[in-house]
Amino acid sequence: EVQLVESGGGLVQPGGSLRLSCAASGFAFSTYWMSWVRQAPGKGLEWVALIKQDGSEKSYADSLKGRFTISRDNGKKSLNLELNSLRADDTAVYYCARHTNNWFDPWGQGTLVTVSS
Amino acid sequence: EIVLTQSPATLSLSPGERATLSCRASQSINTYLGWYQQKPGQAPRLLIYDASNRATGIPARFSGSGSGTDFTLTISSLEPEDFAVYFCQQRSNWPPYTFGQGTKLEIK
User: Fold this and answer.
1) Conformational region of residue A77, where left means phi above 0, alpha means psi within -120 to 50, and beta covers everything else
2) Option in A44, A106, A109 nearest B101 (CB)
3) What pLDDT is attached to residue B93?
4) Does B96 touch chain A (CB under 8 A)?
5) DSSP code for B75
6) Cα–Cα–Cα angle for A95, A100, A106, nearest 5°?
7) Quick one: how far is CA A86 from the chain centroid?
8) Sign of torsion, CA B65 B105 B88 A55?
9) With contact defined as beta carbons under 8 Å apart, do B90 and B2 qualify?
10) Which 3 state secondary structure label does DSSP give B46?
């Protein structure tokens, strides 16, 4: 069974940092592009970042202005997202998702990041 | 950046009825449009890709159509489990991938 399990979310103060992880299983992780997508409480979906199979290409939403860094460890079948200089409007559930024919399928269950003092 | 506009924001229907959801793109995206379903407390699930192809395991009552800028998701006969929020998403001009704001399908 294909499975994606996020972890690392929690409560962090404005200006703080957090590292999210996504553990993949049930498929050949190293052969897929991967993305992070977030969803603020009660709001829509926002694509955050993507990374190529070997990590050689990365892309980010312009709104992040260089504060987030995506990475992967194919040996550990892990996708990561480093969040820095966090702001209140970064509060969201962060999902990792596999690119299947360039669509997001499947998604993990998400991890909640709350930025508040 | 391609903007996707979904309508209506909320659709109130009864089980057994037909649902028609719309998604309009700010510029042509060929057929590079997908639809996702999201139930409360759950992650989104891919329903339709490339405008009209059902994803694995998706029931035949779900269908998609359209090309260019106008797209439709149709649920032929609503089942109780279909009441959820539906998002469209484009992959024509990426990055960024963009999503519509969602249509909430609620029980009347």
Assistant:
1) left
2) A44
3) 82
4) yes
5) E
6) 35
7) 15
8) negative
9) yes
10) strand
Report the residue from A35, A45, A59 with minimal CB separation from B87.
Answer: A45
How many CB atoms lie under 10 A from the CB of residue A18?
A: 20
* CB-CB neighbors (< 8 A) of A50 in chain B: 95, 97
Q: Does the N-terminal peptide bond of residue B95 adopt cis geometry, omega within 30 degrees of 0? A: yes
Select from A35, A101, A110 the Cβ nearest to the Cβ of B49. Answer: A101
Beta carbons within 8 Å of A1's beta carbon, 6+ residues apart: A25, A26
What is the C-alpha to C-alpha distance for residues B8 and B50, in angstroms, rounded to an integer?
22
Q: If you count them, how many residues does chain B have?
A: 108
The half-sphere exposure of B104 on its side-chain side, counting CA atoms within 13 A, is: 9
Span B27-71, pLDDT tens digits = 999 999 999 999 999 999 999 999 999 999 999 999 999 999 999
The DSSP output letter for A64 is G
Q: Measure the CA angle with vertex A92, ends B90 and A2; round to 5°.
A: 60
Which residues of chain A have a CB within 8 Å of the CB of B101?
44
**Could you tell me the two tokens for B63?**
């269908």
Task: Pull the structure tokens for residue B60.
Answer: 């035949």
Q: State pLDDT tens for residues A35-74.
A: 999 999 999 999 999 999 999 999 999 999 799 999 999 9
